[in-house]
Amino acid sequence: MKTLLSDEAAQAAAAEPAGEVLLVRGGRPLRGRVTVTGAKNLATKAMVASLLGDSPSTLRDVPQISDVRVVRSLLEVHGVKVTDGAEPGSLVLDPTDAVSAHMEEIDAHAGASRIPILFCGPLLHLLGEAFIPDLGGCRIGDRPINFHLDALRQFGAVVEKLPTGIRLSAPEGLHGANIELPYPSVGATEQVLLTAVRAAGVTELRGAAIEPEIMDLIAVLQKMGAIISYEPNRVILIEGVDALTGYDHRCIFDRNEAASWASAALATDGDIFVEGAKQQEMLTFLNIYRKAGGWFDVREDGIQFRRGGPLKPVIVETDVHPGFMTDWQQPLIVALTQAEGESVVHETVYENRFGFTDALNKMGASIVVHRDGLDAPYRRVPRRALEQAAVVTGPTPLHGADVVVPDLRGGYSHLIAALAADGESTVRGVGILSRGYEKLFTKLSALGADFDIVG
Ligand code: EPU
């Protein structure tokens, strides 16, 4: 595989120590200031969008996380020249020499991330064909790609499943389509946007996801020359155009990172100012935060978070935007173990996102995961015989334990539980956290966390 980092980026990344196993000495509140990065869930998609332009793009506030490195490397495999921009944290992506890549090189990225699926539309427009390796990402459910493939077929793509991945071709080019998503999937909405902007004719997408990161991707595409309008009731209209140019764009802030730090302040009884966090994109989170006994102060340059008194139990249902994000529940649950009474967290986006609670129970929490969540009419994920609702009874003192990180958000929650707990914890497999949190160890140290990298 090619080198994932340029010299400059490698030096910057080197400032963050690497490690898989942490020895955490808990019981210390996290206090201080952190700066939130650009959103993982926008940056990677905007990088893919650069393939659609006929001139270089500049993306600013790109987080230094492994998902970004995987996409960078895949773009390079396809002949896109990626260099660090003059502004720290910016990338220049030049697609003018993009070429068809060798399958072995693409295959080297198999299982590394879910973003490669979004290369389909741009590569079909550019090269008439695409090969997408088996996808990775967090193991939090089945994570099928049927919505993506159905939509691509409606645009006129021919999809062939191979043992190692998926080959797509568009012998007659791609045309606009009328697409209705069965569920407002973030990825499938992005797939449609990235494909429709250059397809011949108009595309009407119904049942679209409307997350702020998707609106930011629409802004990127509009800068490139796309014509996209957003109608009420999750309808997006895209008028295909013949050519797009490069863009210059600053990534929206990472709402998930901001919410993670907010919950860390709550769980450890600390006080954290999250520079760069904005209120509008976090309204739903802030409501629940307040109901759970959290206090926040929205300022010009960020939001300060801490407890406002004793923590209170809440009932939360994860949902697509503008609901409470599925990525926000894991760190919040750590705080809810310290609330007086019974909290209920319904997970309606993924069918298997409570695996991380086992480790919290090992640390003294009382969390029971029930297979049945909300009644069927309210559930966006069809009923499956899997976990759906977590009942958290508190307060229960947390104590140190030896735990293994299961996935990105669950792993973050293990880390803050260890920081909140009395005594020492060993947290294994923390490397996965670099998928979504830039310079996590550096930021934790700056907030006063007491830990050593021991493996
Ligand atoms: N789904 C299908 N078929 C599809 C696509 C999705 O059944 O073809 C189902 C999924 O299995 C899931 C639900 O639809 O049950 C939602 O999936 P969605 O497509 O919305 O999620 P995604 O695009 O794969 C992104 C984020 C996730 C975030 C979700 C929901 C990226 C790279 N990932 O995933 O982020 O949880 O949207 O907001 O943008 C994370 O940051 O840790 C993370 C997992």
UniProtKB/TrEMBL annotation:
Record field: catalytic activity: phosphoenolpyruvate + UDP-N-acetyl-alpha-D-glucosamine = UDP-N-acetyl-3-O-(1-carboxyvinyl)-alpha-D-glucosamine + phosphate
Pathway: Cell wall biogenesis; peptidoglycan biosynthesis
Binding site for UDP-N-acetyl-alpha-D-glucosamine: 114, 327, 349
Localization per Swiss-Prot or TrEMBL: Cytoplasm
Location of 2-(S-cysteinyl)pyruvic acid O-phosphothioketal modifications: 138
Pfam families: EPSP_synthase (PF00275)
Record: residues binding phosphoenolpyruvate: 40-41
Residues annotated as domain Enolpyruvate transferase: 24-444
Gene Ontology MF, one: UDP-N-acetylglucosamine 1-carboxyvinyltransferase activity
EC number: 2.5.1.7
UniProt keyword Lipid metabolism present: no
SUPFAM superfamilies named in the record: EPT/RTPC-like (SSF55205)
Bilayer-crossing regions: none
Annotated signal sequence range: none
Function, in words: Cell wall formation. Adds enolpyruvyl to UDP-N-acetylglucosamine.
Sequence similarity: Belongs to the EPSP synthase family. MurA subfamily.
Database matches in HAMAP family: MurA
Record's protein name: UDP-N-acetylglucosamine 1-carboxyvinyltransferase
Organism, scientific name: Microbacterium schleiferi
Upper lineage: Bacteria, Bacillati, Actinomycetota, Actinomycetes, Micrococcales
